[in-house]
Amino acid sequence: MDNTLFSILSRIQQSYWGFLVGFFNIESGLVAISDEIFLFCDKCDWSARSITEECKACGKDGTNYIRFKSGSGDGVYSLFRFFKKGLENETDNVEESIGGLLFLDWIKNGSEVLPYFLDNQNPRRVDLDFFYDLADDCEGEYIGSVICKTSDGAADWEHCLFFGDAYLGNTGSDAILYSNLSPGEYAIYLFNSLALFIRKDEAIKYGLTTNFRFSKVELENFALGKENEAVRSHVTPMGLNTVCWNYELIDSELVYELQANGSNTLATDFDYTQDGNPNHPVWELFYWLVQMEHLGIDVGVKRIAEFLEPSNSNYEYWANYKLEVLKILGILK
Description:
8 helices
């Protein structure tokens, strides 16, 4: 079976769309995918060119965290989740969420990906052949896996993986993303400027191997880039820019939704307290607004204070999850 990138995508796209979750910034040149948010830990062995990590101090156990070189180095990158065709809403039926893609080309994310989704009338959903003009058709390399854990009685939104900088701090200055997924072990494959993560049983179904072709040392060098490969480095961190990109993306989606329903209401005036869906995009919008305010932008939305009040009908959802994320990142105290 042909296992080049485009062949793999053509097989997956028979059943799935690509849903743009959002953008995250990398300042260290290393992407981390994990089952929970791991802030930078000085007890971890950062001198080792390892992909996984085991650290009793922070809780990395070799299965819940993986890191690898972020394509073109520092930059702003995008996360797409596979969205089952035939479902009305991408938040429906998390059991159908089997993986996704990281597009790791900073220039094309800014010049092609973001503008496309801001201008498109269905701003966050595409066929997977969208990547044919963005990425190189090449064979990928299996580098390891990360487990998306669950617990008895967990709500659907608690099944997720986090994506962001491996050196993530608690200053609230970086954008990180999470993607709702069905619980299980997710295989990671690296291609030129793109990473595929897919549940292992689905990987086998689509003809992908989960065997290592190289030794551990060779694999670590591959995953972290060639020794003499040139990569970009930031002078100015891109966290604020990335947060603003995410705000623009969600705002565009909400404006389209409101206009499609015959309303000229501003997205920020959406009556979110009456909406029973905690995964509605308006909640994402306010998440990024809170972080923008934290980073010094006067967003001019007085309802943020109301939005954070326990009297809010959906506050329990936020208290259990997104508020906790904001607190971990140092955005809320």
